[in-house]
Request: fold
Amino acid sequence: MPFRILALNNVSVRGLERLPRDRYEVASEVGHPQAILVRSADMHGMEIPATVLAVARAGAGTNNIPVARLSARGIPVFNAPGANANAVKELVLAGLLIAARNICHAWGFVRGLSGDEHFLEGQVESGKKRFVGFELPGKTLGVVGLGAIGVEVANAAHLLGMRVLGYDPQITVQRAWQLSSGVEQATSLDDLFARSDMVTVHVPLLDATRALVNAQRIGLMRQGAVVLNFARAGIVDEEAVLAALDGGALAAYVCDFPTVSNKDHPKVVALPHLGASTSEAEENCAMMVADTLRDFLENGNIRHSVNFPESMLPRVPGTYRMAIANSNVPNMVGQISTRLAAAGLNIADLLNKSRGDLAYTLIDTDAPVPEAVLGDIARIAGVLSARLL
Reply:
């Protein structure tokens, strides 16, 4: 029987090609799916079928997915971190130039002119003084969040001649290796804001990051500073930004999240959520998440999950695999091992990883695990899900 995957949105054909048709059925309407593929569809009010083993988002953010509810069922949620990084980086660079040179407002001015060539020339010459900007080299850019996108933005801005400050207390070793040595470390968010002419945010929307850009931190910035937001709308306190724009503390706000309040403001450039809107980014996201989902369904391996730990165990020929998601409590592996031993099963290999309150275990045995033993393991207090591969 092929794996059945419910697609809530259209997914790039390049991604679907990574799921062989003889082993996968992908459709917008499918009964008893083992996995769900999603891009922008809101799943919070959706009834998740009991057969679902995983949810995969062809993108980075997972705000449209009920991650906590799925975690409680032992269902990993996958995303595609970094697959759209170049697309977002390019738009941030465009945002820097838009703000520095008043490009959108200058273009709007020209489009509003009328008259003959002589009159137009006079209007252009007299009007261009309103759009005098500044050059990027020598200006300081503060980058909040040094994940896949933040690192690319920081490195590119450094190559443009900007002084770049980065802040991310949870930066990974992988991202640290990728970061240019010319990027300076800010000691705190307040330190970053106080020393920056321009600030761009690249963090997920969490309780800890909501309204990260607020009146207090804007007050630390240099007069006439610029804020850019191509991450999530809620990371910026919009009322505080608009008040700072009106008062002259900020010169511009460039974002990817139009609202009734900001779309017509003379110092705001609000784009229609274009961050990952390139054909290349959509293809990259779809291919990454398809590969991740296939490896999980076929081998139980977990990569790029937002709720479960990275767990990858090579498969040895002649062994049989069991995957168990559970609460991160003591003696879980011991209880599982005891039940396998009682059934006369020898463990050939084992991997156990934890992340916060959740844990994940892969066990390879030298003989098939009977369904009755699997059921016994699934009934252990704290086990969220268990399956044979």
Notes: The radius of gyration is 25 Å.
